[in-house]
């Protein structure tokens, strides 16, 4: 890493990461030409770069992949967790090569370019990861210019001026704007995504009416013998909804700003709180009052990641910004009820501070990497949440049981 004052852009460098202190890491740019400012984090997953790039929880962040070969299987229309990438860009060790996979539709670098995302290759990602581990996730600018005409001091000033993720509500920017009915279960080889027949007829993807809000959704949403989960979308990964369907639910998705009246008008058997980007405390300003009303109404609740942090805030706990966060597909988590270890998918930079949990909330899971809180359950209500990602995508599917546990609990609730 070189100092800004002595910095000369090396010959052939077409991409750069610039830090707020003026230091820089050069490489080769790919994908979109331009620059973006955000937080740099690292992800240790070996597979699933397209799911990672399209996870809305990465809004405001640039991902450096520790696995050296990224892009080598190209991209396709199925391996996406949202309609578009949300990570601002990525940093990789090897240059992106010609895709080699029967599922490839478009090379990764073209896909990045078409979606306005900046890539940087040829970087010593091990050194970068060690630096983040030691100093914490930094604010950076990533830039790509085929002529290598970088004004490092100006880019460093932009990185320094960026306020950082703490205090930033990004859920409001990435949430779906309309209510929608979710259809379809998980992907299988040769079949793609299953369309769950009991979820049909699919009447409309926009069921909001100006007078009644979302109240027409219930009739529209298929088989009423399946428990109805109303999912609040703070920046949800699609595979969460697919897993809820697989577990037997029918799912209506509402925007992050949905009011309690809009939620309850749908007659939910359960409410799901999704993952999402940014600082939970900032999103909590409007999300927490709604979640408290849901809890007061004794509607069962399940939350994942940001949804976990928001449930924590709703019961009176505090959230904290972590030093470097957890991002990868191999994170061991211990289930405290019986000591079972789940290997999990993770993506978070904030956490629930277990020391602030009130008496009626127990810690259910902890990280075996650093002992941080990874799950909570209320002792006096049917409400629980986990910090990690049981929907995988990418990652192991050890924790699918959580979807089943939630939906089975609702079936009991709706049984005659
Ligand atoms: N995946 C998520 O939901 C992330 C939650 C939150 N934005 C965090 O960084 O901790």
UniProtKB/TrEMBL annotation:
Carbamoyl-phosphate synthase small subunit N-terminal domain boundaries: 13-143
One Pfam family, short name: GATase
Coiled coil: none
SUPFAM superfamilies (UniProt xref): Carbamoyl phosphate synthetase, small subunit N-terminal domain, Class I glutamine amidotransferase-like
Any single biological process term in GO: 'de novo' UMP biosynthetic process
Pathway(s) per entry: Pyrimidine metabolism; UMP biosynthesis via de novo pathway; (S)-dihydroorotate from bicarbonate: step 1/3; Amino-acid biosynthesis; L-arginine biosynthesis; carbamoyl phosphate from bicarbonate: step 1/1
Record key words, sorted: Amino-acid biosynthesis, Arginine biosynthesis, ATP-binding, Glutamine amidotransferase, Ligase, Nucleotide-binding, Pyrimidine biosynthesis
Reaction catalyzed: hydrogencarbonate + L-glutamine + 2 ATP + H2O = carbamoyl phosphate + L-glutamate + 2 ADP + phosphate + 2 H(+); L-glutamine + H2O = L-glutamate + NH4(+)
Annotated active site: 305 (nucleophile), 389, 391
Stretches for region CPSase: 1-227
HAMAP family linked to this entry: CPSase_S_chain
Name by which UniProt lists this protein: Carbamoyl phosphate synthase small chain
């Amino acid at each position: 890493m070189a100092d800004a004052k002595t910095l000369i852009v090396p010959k052939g460098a077409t991409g750069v990461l610039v830090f707020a202190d003026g230091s820089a890491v050069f490489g080769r740019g790919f994908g979109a030409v331009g620059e973006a400012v955000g937080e740099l984090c690292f992800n240790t997953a070996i597979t699933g770069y397209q799911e990672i790039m399209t996870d809305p929880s990465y809004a405001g962040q640039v991902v450096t992949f520790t696995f050296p070969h990224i892009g080598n299987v190209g991209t396709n229309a199925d391996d996406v967790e949202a309609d578009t990438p949300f990570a601002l860009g990525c940093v990789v060790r090897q240059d992106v090569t010609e895709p080699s996979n029967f599922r490839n539709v478009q090379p990764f670098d073209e896909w990045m370019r078409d979606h306005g995302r900046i890539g940087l290759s040829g970087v010593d990602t091990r050194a970068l990861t060690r630096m983040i581990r030691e100093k914490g996730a930094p604010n950076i600018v990533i830039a790509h210019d085929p002529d290598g005409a970088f004004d490092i001091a100006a880019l460093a000033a932009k990185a320094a001026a960026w306020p950082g993720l703490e205090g930033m509500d990004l859920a409001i920017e990435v949430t779906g704007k309309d209510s929608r009915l979710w259809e379809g279960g998980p992907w299988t080889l040769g079949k793609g995504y299953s369309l769950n027949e009991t979820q049909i007829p699919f009447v409309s993807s926009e069921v909001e009416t100006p007078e009644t809000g979302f109240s027409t959704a219930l009739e529209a949403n298929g088989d009423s013998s399946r428990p109805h989960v109303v999912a609040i979308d703070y920046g949800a990964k699609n595979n969460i909804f697919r897993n809820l369907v697989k577990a037997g639910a029918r799912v209506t998705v509402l925007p992050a700003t949905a009011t309690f009246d809009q939620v309850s008008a749908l007659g939910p058997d359960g409410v799901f709180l999704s993952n999402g980007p940014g600082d939970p405390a900032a999103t909590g300003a409007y999300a927490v009052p709604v979640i408290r009303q849901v809890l007061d109404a004794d509607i069962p609740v399940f939350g994942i990641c940001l949804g976990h942090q928001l449930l924590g805030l709703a019961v009176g706990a505090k959230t904290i910004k972590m030093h470097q966060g957890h991002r990868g597909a191999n994170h061991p988590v211990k289930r405290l009820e019986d000591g079972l270890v789940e290997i999990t998918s993770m993506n978070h930079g904030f956490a629930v501070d277990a020391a602030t949990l009130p008496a009626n909330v127990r810690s259910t899971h902890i990280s075996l990497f650093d002992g941080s809180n990874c799950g909570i359950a209320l002792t006096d209500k049917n409400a629980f949440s986990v910090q990690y990602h049981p929907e995988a995508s990418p990652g192991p599917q050890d924790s699918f049981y959580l979807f089943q546990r939630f939906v089975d609990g609702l079936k009991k609730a709706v049984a005659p």
